[in-house]
Design a protein that fits this description.
Blueprint lengths: L13 H19 L20 E9 L10 E10 L5 E10 L8 H4 L10 E2 L3 E7 L4 E9 L14 E13 L5 E12 L17 H6 L10 E9 L17 E3 L3 H6 L4 H12 L9 H5 E5 L1 H10 L3 E4 L9 E3 L3 H15 L3 E4 L7 H7 L2 H19 L7 E2 L8 H9 L3 E6 L12 E7 L2 E8 L1 H8 L24 H14 L11 H4 L1 E3 L9 H17 L2 E3 L2 H6 L14 H6 L3 H18 L2 E2 L8 H15 L21 H22 L1 E4 L4 E4 L6 E7 L4 E9 L4 E3 L5 E3 L3 E7 L1 E3 L5 E8 L5 E12 L4 H27 L13
Parallel strand pairs: 9-11, 9-19, 9-20, 10-12, 11-14, 15-16, 16-18, 23-31
Antiparallel strand pairs: 1-2, 2-6, 3-4, 3-5, 3-7, 7-8, 12-13, 17-18, 21-25, 22-24, 24-28, 25-27, 25-30, 26-29, 30-31
Pfam family, one: DUF6049
Organism: Rhodococcus xishaensis
Protein name: Glycoprotein
Length: 805
């Protein structure tokens, strides 16, 4: 249960309530009175208690301690009365726990019992009284170390869990600890101690205790960081490709994100500034960084530059729409991105952050190609670059067996996975083999789980990735954005501060740092992360490791590792109902694509025409926003969430569009009765194609036994045009007959509506044959009779009265 959902005490039964409160507060007062609090009263562990105050961290200075920063840690925060009564005597203090000793503790230390933060500072009064709904800011400062006063007593580099504790006295109760806030403080080196002077003799104990403490830089950590640029799918679904028509978006949120101060604008600006030659003079951060770009985002932004429409209802993509406002912002952003990619590494993300597990379940070759092979070509063509190929970064950070086989079948490749996505995990940053061997293998480069988890919590829309173990999960809303950023900085720097005695194991310490693909960090947060990594590089704690170097690494033994696909990834994934809908429509698109004609004289190709529908199905399987806090109920697959509703809308729109395409090719009913001049006269029909591309069709005829129809074979219909068809027919009956005609694809899929024709022939059938035969026989008889008479010299009666000239 989150703090926000804790039940409030009610005032019914005032006497009983007061008594219970006094007992509770007296118990807490005993624990707090000595300046320490036992583990049993930890706020995070006792969520059943009512919440009176809410404490949040607003600013931490410095964000990362170095030998050149101030010797004092300053925390600014806010205490708010969120309870149902006034609170008096509000005081706060700063505490710390022991340095983080393992990667897992980077997350679990944030849930430590309060009593384990056993190095404490003095209480500082915040307010004598806070009424309901009121809040008050505070500032706490405490030296890192001091020989004469209170301090955090930090004597060596490391990552330290910090806690701000707030005490107060609620109305009807006694003094108690009412809330706390936690964060990580990375200490890369210690500055000279607070209050130290330069007068102490060099080499003395006093000088040693106050002198700066630099980090150990003898074994720097190779660092690689991906910088993702992605957004949720924005194009309205169910609209085929065209040459001149404007694209339609479901809303104009992307325009705001691309504009000055927007999310994508700030992410791009942070990378631009940090890699400028004047800022990154040695190019180390530039070498460490690689842009990971969603091709769906690029397609959308590129189309926006030419003008676009915003639909009123995403379920009606061709309905009412208004002009979008972001064309100029899109053009400016795209131009800046093109400039940045000229000096920095680039890879393409899977299309629209598609769920690879769902993609492999659908198992459609064209969809798989659009999702995993086409993205690099899209990125290269729009940005004019040559991106790194054969690298797949699944949005989920994990693979199941089916999706791994799918990637392997595409050819030799490398995927980026969380370190706990495989069994017998080597250290993060290493490359292992998942399937195959040698040149025919699927390899995986592993990234640090704790760092990626902490980065995913940074920003306006914190999320918990699917690969995060259950024991490291908690409600991110209880921490402020500042606290979550501090946690990320601690996680990113921790590995570089670990000492490895004896053998040089730099490879085992390497760091592959990956934020979530759709990262909600703002410009300041993004800049702080990049600045911290730059500090690691400049200080010698880290060394740049280009992504190409990881690709070139030989895989770590054992040769093949087993995959681990957590249950949480299934819950966070695409619902089966969406998968079934995508599978059904993908096969219909495949069938239609095989019948379309690629005519050099027509500017719109079948691929351009049908590609948006394939992409719409991929967008329906996007993992975007599925792990955001509160986006959907993960325990039921999020079936009632807005994300699932949007996915179902996309599938329905594609279904409607494909239905329309199949109906657009048909036989026109001639009307009336069709009269044949003879028993072998052809039937004349007209086939109509309302699609903007040509199509090959097969005529299907359902005729009575008395009518024999000759198969005219495949027929090509021109774009948005018609064609007359002559169908040879032979009729052996003079009766009026009904013949049904329809068009299909060459594989037999029905196109358009069936039409019926009433046929009548002037032929007489068997009676005509008998009469003709009888007449012929009579003619032969009369001719023979005359010849017989002439042979015998007897005049024929037919010659009577005839005189030879």
């Amino acid at each position: 249960m989150t703090m926000a959902s804790r039940p409030a005490w009610r005032r019914s039964g005032a006497t009983i309530l007061t008594a219970l409160t006094l007992v509770l507060m007296l118990f807490s007062a005993v624990l707090i009175g000595t300046g320490t609090v036992s583990a049993q009263t930890d706020t995070h562990a006792t969520a059943q208690h009512p919440q009176f105050l809410k404490l949040s961290i607003d600013r931490v200075t410095p964000t990362a301690v170095t030998t050149t920063t101030a010797p004092t840690v300053t925390v600014t925060g806010t205490v708010a009365n969120v309870g149902d009564r006034p609170v008096a005597d509000i005081a706060v203090r700063l505490q710390r726990a022991a340095a983080v000793d393992s990667s897992e503790e980077l997350r679990t230390s944030l849930d430590l019992y309060q009593g384990e933060f056993d190095t404490v500072g003095p209480f500082v009064q915040v307010a004598s009284n806070l009424e309901q709904g009121e809040q008050e800011q505070f500032t706490l400062s405490l030296p890192l170390r001091s020989q004469t006063d209170w301090s955090l007593d930090i004597t060596e580099p490391g990552v330290y869990p910090m806690l701000v504790n707030v005490n107060g006295t609620p109305d009807y109760g006694g003094q108690a600890r009412l809330d706390d806030a936690r964060f990580l403080l990375p200490v890369l080196g210690l500055p000279q101690a607070d209050g130290a002077t330069d007068t102490a003799p060099q080499g003395s104990d006093s000088a040693s205790a106050t002198a700066p403490v630099p980090p150990d830089t003898s074994n720097p950590v190779p660092v690689t960081m991906l910088w993702p640029l992605a957004d949720e799918p924005q194009l309205a679904a169910g609209i085929p490709g065209s040459i001149n028509e404007q694209v339609r978006l479901v809303d104009d949120d992307l325009a705001r994100s691309l504009s000055q101060g927007g999310r994508l604008d700030q992410l791009l600006a942070a990378a631009e500034f940090a890699t400028e030659p004047d800022v990154d003079r040695d190019g180390e951060l530039t070498d460490s960084l690689c842009l990971a770009i969603d091709p769906d985002l690029l397609i959308t932004v590129s189309n926006m530059t030419r003008g676009y429409l915003v639909v009123e209802d995403p379920a009606n993509p061709t309905g009412p729409a208004r002009e979008g406002d972001g064309s100029d912002a899109a053009a400016a952003w795209l131009q800046r991105l093109e400039s940045l990619t000229r000096r920095i590494c680039v890879i393409a993300l899977p299309f629209a952050q598609v769920d690879l597990a769902a993609l492999s379940t659908v198992d459609d070759e064209s969809l798989t190609s659009s999702a995993l092979l086409a993205p690099a070509d899209i990125v290269d063509s729009i940005l004019g670059v040559t991106s790194l190929r054969n690298i797949t970064w699944p949005d989920a950070g994990v693979l199941d067996e089916t999706s791994a086989e799918m990637l392997h079948e595409l050819g030799p490749a490398m995927t980026l996975l969380a370190a706990n996505a495989v069994e017998a995990t080597p250290a993060p940053g290493r490359k292992i083999t998942l399937i195959g061997e040698g040149e025919d293998s699927l390899d995986a480069a592993l990234f640090d789980v704790s760092a990626a988890t902490a980065l995913a919590a940074v920003g306006s829309a914190p999320q918990t990735p699917s690969y995060v173990p259950e024991q490291a999960r908690y409600d991110l809303d209880r921490d402020s954005r500042t606290a979550r950023l501090q946690d990320a900085l601690g996680a990113v720097t921790w590995r570089s501060l670990q000492e490895l005695g004896g053998v040089n194991r730099a490879g085992d310490r390497s760091m592959l740092i990956v934020p979530p693909q759709q990262w909600s960090a703002d410009g300041d947060e993004a800049a702080t992360v990049l600045s911290t990594i730059s500090t690691l590089l400049r200080s010698g704690l880290a060394t740049p490791q280009p992504l190409t170097a990881i690709v070139a690494q030989p895989p770590t033994k054992p040769a093949v590792a087993d995959l681990v696909y957590p249950q949480r990834a299934i819950l966070d994934g695409i619902p089966e109902s969406v998968e079934l809908g995508v599978e059904a429509q993908a096969s219909r698109i495949d069938e239609l694509v095989t019948t379309l004609v690629d005519d050099p004289q027509v500017p719109l190709t079948p691929t351009q025409f049908m590609a948006p529908l394939y992409e719409d199905l991929l967008r329906a399987m996007s993992l975007s926003n599925r792990r955001d806090e509160g986006a959907s109920d993960a325990m039921d697959g999020g079936s009632s969430g807005a994300v699932d509703q949007a996915a179902h809308t996309r599938v329905r729109n594609v279904t409607t569009a494909i239905d329309g395409m199949y109906r657009a090719v048909t036989i026109l009913a001639p009307g009336g009765v069709y009269t044949l001049a003879s028993e072998q006269s052809p039937l004349l029909l007209v086939a109509r194609n309302d699609l903007p591309v040509g199509i090959t069709v097969q005529l299907q005829v359902d005729a009575p036994e008395e009518m024999q129809i000759t198969d005219i074979g495949p027929q090509q219909l021109p774009p948005r045009g018609s064609r007359s068809l002559q169908v040879p027919a032979e009729i052996s009956d003079s009766r009026t007959m009904v013949v049904s005609f329809s068009l299909t694809t060459e594989n037999g899929q029905n196109l358009g509506e069936q039409t019926s024709v009433t046929v009548r022939s002037n032929a007489y059938g068997q009676a005509l044959a008998i009469i003709t035969a009888g007449a012929g026989a009579l003619l032969l008889f009369l001719a023979g009779r005359r010849l017989w008479h002439r042979f015998r010299g007897q005049p024929d009666r037919a010659d009577e009265g005839y005189q030879r000239p």
